[in-house]
Amino acid sequence: MSESGPAYDAIGRTYRTTRAPDPRIAAAIDSALGDARSVLNVGAGTGSYEPRAREVIALEPSLVMIAQRPPGSAPVLQGVAERIPLEDDSVDAAMAILSDHHWHDRPAGIREMARVARRRVVLVNFDPALAGEFWMNRDYLPGFLGLVPEPYRRPGYFEEELRGMLDAVRLTALPIPHDCQDGFYYAYWRQPRAYLDSSVRENISVFHLLSGDEVDSGLARLESDLANGTWETRNADLLGRRELDAGLRVIVAETS
């Protein structure tokens, strides 16, 4: 996938309307940061998960996203993960929340995070090997799997790659609540009608990366399946769940 700057300059103009931070995800991120006092937020966007009780510096390539940061947000540098404009060991921790899949060179960005972080690197993202298990990809947008580079489709590769780039890596599952307040792609696993809302899709990059024909066709099938009860029948096991492990992971790597 492409660097978040050009992508979100084009599609992120109403980002804050549907991408509010979810407090449960925020709590998991805060816990992962541990005793870090100073934090660099890489691919910071509008600052959704920046911890208020710490000293934060934001790094974001998109001017459109920077313009949507609310008053009182952390100071922000315009720049990319692959070339972080800070000295070695400049902050206690560096974090990237649902952003590293947008970088041009993910390994280079992660190495840069480790370079500037004295204590730890914290990442939150999805294990791409599990993408085929999500009903939206399985039944309506199978082209999503084509966005995942072939090696990442292999079970275990995601973790192996991280362990090859970082030391003392820990991965923890982060279940997605059924009423998740942050409208990322997987957030609506129990709210399928949300995908029919263009304002929701506007701030999810998947819908801009796939062809318009595939998106239109998939949404038409989803709308039909919701109307005739097929979706509920096919996904009955989800209806009573309060949270779902869809592959979202918190990754912590100690650098000290």
Plain-language structure description:
It is a single chain. The protein is globular and about 55 Å long. Mean pLDDT is 93; it is low at 1-6. 32% of the residues lie in helices and 18% in strands. It has helices at residues 4-11, 15-18, 23-33, 63-67, 106-116, 135-139, 157-165, 198-201, 206-209, 212-228, 230-234; strands at residues 38-42, 55-60, 76-78, 91-97, 117-126, 169-173, 176-177, 243-244, 248-254. Strand 4 (91-97), helix 5 (106-116) and strand 5 (117-126) form a beta-alpha-beta unit. By secondary structure, the chain is α/β, with parallel strands linked by helices. 37% of the residues are buried. The chain has one domain (4-254): Rossmann fold, CATH 3.40.50.
Count of domain modules: 1
Distance between the termini: 31 Å
Q: Considering the protein shown, what is the CATH homologous superfamily? A: Vaccinia Virus protein VP39
CATH architecture: 3-Layer(aba) Sandwich
Shape verdict: globular
C-alpha Rg, in Å?
A: 18 Å
The amount of beta strand, in percent, is: 15-25%
Mean pLDDT: 93
Beta strand count: 9
Residue stretches low in confidence (pLDDT < 50, at least 5 long) are 1-6
CATH-defined topology: Rossmann fold
Return the CATH class: Alpha Beta
Distinct helical segment count: 11
Describe the strand arrangement of the main beta sheet, using strand numbers: 3-2-1-4-5-9-6
